[in-house]
Amino acid sequence: MNGELRVLFPQVKTKNIYVFETKLFSPEDKLIMAPMQNLTGYLFRNAYDKLFPNIIDKAITPFISITHGSNSFSKRKFRDVLKENNTSNLEIIPQVLGNDINAMIEIAEALFSLGYKEMNLNLGCPFERTLKKDRGAGLLKDTKRIENIIEGVINRIPISLSLKLRLGVEDTDDIYRLIPIINSYPIKNIIIHPRLAVDKYESEVNLNCFEDIIPKVNKRVVYNGDIFSREDFNKLKLRFPSINDWMLGRGLINNPLLPFEIKSNEYFQKEEGMIALHAELLKTATSVNKMKEYWSYFSQGLNIEEDKLSIIYSCETLEELDEKVRDIIKEMIKE
Length: 335
Known about the structure:
The chain has 2 domains: 27-267, Aldolase class I (TIM Barrel), CATH 3.20.20; 285-334. The protein is built from 13 helices and 13 strands. The chain has a 10-stranded parallel beta sheet. A 3-stranded antiparallel beta sheet has the order 1-2-13. The chain is an alpha/beta fold. Helix 10 runs antiparallel to helix 13 and helix 12 (306-313) runs antiparallel to helix 13. Helices cover 39% and strands 16% of the residues.
């Protein structure tokens, strides 16, 4: 297995301060920020990279819809990927969601004009509204249509194409039908979330199927799904030593310091890092509800009790929310 095993003795652990003694993350491994609609847009990416530079290697953006309105360039439609809005040093890969070949080509040309070299096609969104419109994971039930899209796009766009997908809609047969197609075209890489669309995020990830798929695919494979702790990462790394690209979604939003846990043997105080990110996000926040949404995730990483979380949810202004959050975190640090 590539990489190294490092052990620190003795292990030290006090309340909410950790040292993680086993390091399986290698120099070849990369951490990728997952596209989470309405959460990991450019404001979050900028704030995150400013506070924690070089800890995340690249980010896939929340999707640009290729079915609503004009697909020609407009600052409103392409706001999340405009270079002037992305001040971080992260490598940014724009993602698109849709099934129209000509519209996809039009968006790829617009992205190329903005300086991008890769476009990711979403074949993984599991939500009912998307499935009904044969977009996202909804396309997986029609392998021939996916092949027509890839064939119609791949040689007509000025940038590379990558895919983010699930194992299927209701059955893993979908992914096995798709593999020969993936292998037949110059697709840059595939990101696999090893669940079915009908599972959403409720079932366990199907690691047996993922393991079976890896040797059958001739493209670089990115693993995505249920990495919430360093222990989760280490188990996956031991089982899949050939995988070097790891996507963090809900685990990263729950605990923005998760990449530090995975990458390094260091002491840190989680509350201090979380409040620092909170303060950075507040600088550009325009909605108290947006900050509440972030704290619905942050609270899970900090194990904030329900009664304290309800205090945050009851806030009506950004100023009030900031005050209550700081009070709660101060109490946690004292305990």
